[in-house]
Amino acid sequence: MKIRLILAFLILSVSAGAQLIHVEGSKALGINYAYVKNGFNVSSRITFYKNNNLAFRGSIDFERVRFDLSKASIVYANPELMYTFYNPGDKLFFNVKGGVLTGAEFISNSILDKKKSQFFIGENIGLSAEYFISNKIMLNLDFDQRFFQMSKVGKTSFIIGLGINYNF
Fold first, then answer.
1. Once rounded to an integer, what is the mean pLDDT over residues 133-144?
2. 137 and 130 in contact (C-beta within 8 Å)?
3. For residue 122, what are the domain limits?
4. Which terminus of the chain, N or C, has fewer Cβ atoms within 10 Å?
5. Are 18 and 158 a contacting pair, CB within 8 Å?
6. What does residue 50 show for φ and ψ, rounded to 5 degrees?
7. What is the arithmetic mean of pLDDT over 132-154?
8. For residue 15, what pLDDT band results from cuts at 50, 70 and 90?
9. H/E/C letters for each residue in the chain?
C-alpha cells in the first residue's frame, strides 16, 4: 500500500509539473545565429503558439554583410506566421513559414569614405525544424529565402540559422 501511494504521488507530481508544448497559449523566447552570404545575422525572437499547428513569431534582427569595397549593417523587424505540417513525435516539429521584413541598411564604402542609409521592405518564405530538448528548452533550425524591395544590398538572399529558445 505504501509503495502504491508513493508511486501515485510521483506520477502526479511529474505530470503536474509538465508543460505542454506546441499548444494554444504556450510561448517561447529565443536567440538565433545565422549565416548569410558574405556575413552573419543575430536575432532575438518571441513565438506565440495559437494552437498545435499555427504559431506567430516576431524577431528583431541585426545583420552584417561585407562586399569587396563596402560593408552593410542591417537592422530589421521580421513578423512571421508558421504552420506545422509534420511532427513525427512529441519533440520534433517541421514548419513552413512566411513573413515580412522591414528595416534599414547602413552602407559604408571604404575607398570613397562614403556612408549611406536606406529603408527597405521585403518578404521571406522558408522551412523550420523545432526540436524540444525538454519542455522548457527548444532548438530550432531555419532555412529562408528572402526577397527585398528598395534595397541597395541585393534583391534576394538566403539565410540559414540555428537558435535556442526558452518556453514558458
1. 94
2. no
3. 2-167
4. N
5. no
6. -75, -40
7. 93
8. very low
9. CHHHHHHHHHHHHHHHHCCCCCCCCCEEEEEEEEEECCEEEEEEEEEEECCCCEEEEEEEEEEEEECCCEEEEEEEEEEEEEEEEECCCCCEEEEEEEEEEEEEEEEEECCCCEEEEEEEEEEEEEEEEEEECCCCEEEEEEEEEEEEECCCCCCEEEEEEEEEEEEC
* C-alpha–C-alpha distance, residues 23 and 67, integer Å: 43
Number of separate domains in the chain: 1
Q: What is the pLDDT of residue 20?
A: 58
Dist. CA 121–CA 5, nearest whole Å: 61
Chain position carrying cell 525572437: 45
C-alpha cell, 34: 545565422
In 3D, which of 150, 166, 152, 146 has the Cα closest to residue 36? 146
Burial tier of 65 (Cβ tally within 10 Å: 0-12, 13-18, 19+) = buried
Instruction: Give the C-alpha separation, 146 to 99, whole Å.
Output: 9
